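JOB MANIFEST
job_type = single_chain_structure
chain_count = 1
residues = 178
[input]
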Amino acid sequence: MKVNVVGTSGSGKSTVARQLAQKLAVPYIEMDKLYWRSGWQGTPGDEFLARVNLALAEAAAGWVLDGNYTRTKAIKWREVDWVVWVDYGFFRTLWQAIRRATLRSWRQSELWPGTGNCESFRRSFFSRESIIWWTLKTYRQNRSKYLAEMQDADNGHIRFIHLRSPAETASFLANVQR
């Protein structure tokens, strides 16, 4: 089984992806871990695509991929079986992003091993790189994009699973079988 879990930052996609990978007994691949380098530097385009390709090839029998990154769509959706879209309401998603940013800033734990990247209150609340700002900026765009993707005939090989609430998510996860 090959699954891409998508959704706006703060929606809970990483949590859903980890739980789904565990239930399916396949590797969990976090796109942010493939993208972010030390000092909050992103991986350049071709190198990032190569890293995604390699991660998927190494887990060829099945994987759960966590992340949006539109530029990777041709790679990640080439063989994907499901796209699970975690699409909770705006205020819930925003609250979850704020809560997560606050906890991460407080704990100062490294987000991706070896990068040294930690959230800070300044970065989370008073910066253009704020994950909260990113959530505000992309929520509506992501909804439009994934609604269109679900209708696109080119995606006819993909089963879209649209999760609109924590209850729907819990039910979905409870019913997933290996």
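[summary]
The chain has one domain: 2-89+138-175.
The domain at 2-89+138-175 is CATH 3.40.50.300 (Rossmann fold).
exit_status = 0
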